[in-house]
Structures are given as structure tokens and as C-alpha cells.
Write a structure and sequence with these properties.
The chain is of the alpha+beta class and about 350 residues long. The protein is about 20% helix and about 20% strand. The chain has 9 helices and 16 strands. The strands form 6 sheets. A 4-stranded antiparallel beta sheet has the order 6-5-4-7, with no helix packed on it. A 3-stranded antiparallel beta sheet has the order 3-12-11, with no helix packed on it. A 3-stranded antiparallel beta sheet has the order 8-9-10, with no helix packed on it. β1 and β2 form a beta hairpin. The C terminus is likely disordered.
Length: about 350
Amino acid sequence: MVTFPKTDYESLIQDGRVHCSLYTDQSLFETELEKLWYREWIFIGHESEVPQSGDYTLKWLGLQPVIMTRDEDGGVNLLLNHCAHRGATVCQDESGNSHGFRCWYHGWTYNNKGDLIGVTFADNYDASFDMQEMGLARVPRVGSYRGFVFASMSPTGIDLDTHLGLAKTEILDRLCDLSPVGEVQISTGWLKHRVESNWKMMMENACDHYHANFTHQSTRIIGRSGTRAGVAGLVAGQGVGIAVHRHLRMFGVGYGVIECPMKRTPRALPLSKQRRRRPAVQRVDGNQFQALPPSQSAWPASIRRGPRESSRCSASTRDCTRSSSGPQSPPTAASPRSLASSAIASS
């Protein structure tokens, strides 16, 4: 295993501040790869992403491209996306269904368990060539809990249950138990972020509540304020904020949840009895908004929608707002594409 010079982290991490090299230094990033991404358990995907035999999807484990497959026996496999011959990728499509993968360079072919099943000009190899030893490399350790798949590039280490600790009950169990069937299904892909920064910046931003009332002020005011005063304050450039009390709970080894109280809302009326209204603001130049007078806020009776038409509109909205599914991108040091877009991230 490659070793790197020892870093004096105590000099870089002090009370109330950290050194900027933790986000820019390439050698520090390589140490993080060795000690975090390639040693610890990392959440990599969900079993429902490959529901049928032959299904596959591309993932990243640190900087290593990985194929998650479902084989004919129903097992989930994590295979490194490198041909055993010269290291070229054997799968380029982000997802699909196939019972084999063929290297684009020399045509070596593998099944979805990673076994080598076909070699170009095989007769030209002598008796010492053993196809059983030339399969795709597998991720050394793979574990699953309630459909959530974790992987580790280290062949040794603590087991997955010990690694998850309280996160099993406080995050995964709580999430799955919300379903009437006790499990969740990922069918429309992931919400992904492509961030040109160090991988830690994405996670730190997700845990930073301080910026929300300022950076996302317009969204919060329009989305949660039911009064024209709130919208008028936004139009006038006033610092109108909405206080939301949130609590970050950590459960060790980088797992945590952000909790916020939910307000009880009155039971919704049937769509046919709801009074539909136009938005209280309209966009003018660029990102500038102005409030509409009360007389223009109500929907005219001639364009009010009935329940059936509204239902079609809602379905269309759901289709339009589904998160796109695409392959995860690996992190880098000075400009990593964060791996924190997964439903659960391990720091």
C-alpha cells in the first residue's frame, strides 16, 4: 500500500479555525483517499437500483469506477470497471441491463459476476493462461442493511454493523419504517450536485444552517410567507428572515441527521373546493420581483381548474421535477466532484 508523509493535523486544525490547505493540498487529499475512502465503509447505492437480473449502474468509490450489478442468482456485485488485461473500462453506459460486459479495447468479455468468459484469439495463449484468474477485480468487502449497500476497499476492518452504530436505528430504520412495507425504493435516480471544490465543502455546506436565512432568503420568504407584507419586504429589499429551529444530531463515524419541527397544517380541502390563487409576486427584470395587487391575485373563474384537470397538472409536475439519474462523479483535491450526493454520506 502506498504511504504518504505524516501530516501534523494539530497545527492545521485549531480551536475555531482550520488551515486552507486542508481543502487544496493534493498530498492531504491522497491521504484522505487512503485513510477514508479506501479504508472505511462507504455508502455506494441501493439494491432497488438494480431490481432485475442483469441490471447494472455505475458508481464511484473514491476515484475508483465501480459497476453495481444484479446477477442471475439475485446477488448484488460490486466490480471495478477496469479490464484485467490493460485496464480499459468495460462498461460506459451509466445504467442498463446486460448479462455481460465487453472491453472496448481488445474485446475481453465478462459476465455480470465479473468472470472472464471470452478472450479474443484465445487459441494464441499458451496453457499457462488461466481465465479463472483473470476476472474483473471485486470490491473486497460489500455489506447491505435494509437495501442500503456499503463497500470498503480494505479487505480487513470492523464489520458494517459496528461501523453504522446508532445510524442503523436513528437513520436507516427510521427512514424505512415510514414505509408501510418496511422498505424504500429508488426508482427515479439521485439528486446530484457537481461541485468544483474539495469534497468536504459539500458536506459542510449541507450542515451549515447559518447561511440559509441570508443566501436562500427569497426562496424561504416566498415559499413559507402567506402574507403580502413578507413579499413586499422582499421586493423592497428588506432583511425579512424566517426563523427555523433545526438540530444536527451526530451518531459517530460521520453519520448524522438534521431535524426540524414540523408544523401541523389544516386538513386540505378537495381540489374542487379549494380557492385557487395566482402567485402573489411576478418576475420582472432578471431576478427582481414585484408584488401583485390583491385584485390580480385571484384566478379568474373562467380558468379555474376542476379536480381532474388539476390532477393531471400535478402528475406532470412530478414528472418534471424528478431528479436526473447519472453516474456519480469522483472527488478530487482542489476541484473534486463531491460524492456527497448520495442519500447517506460518510465523512
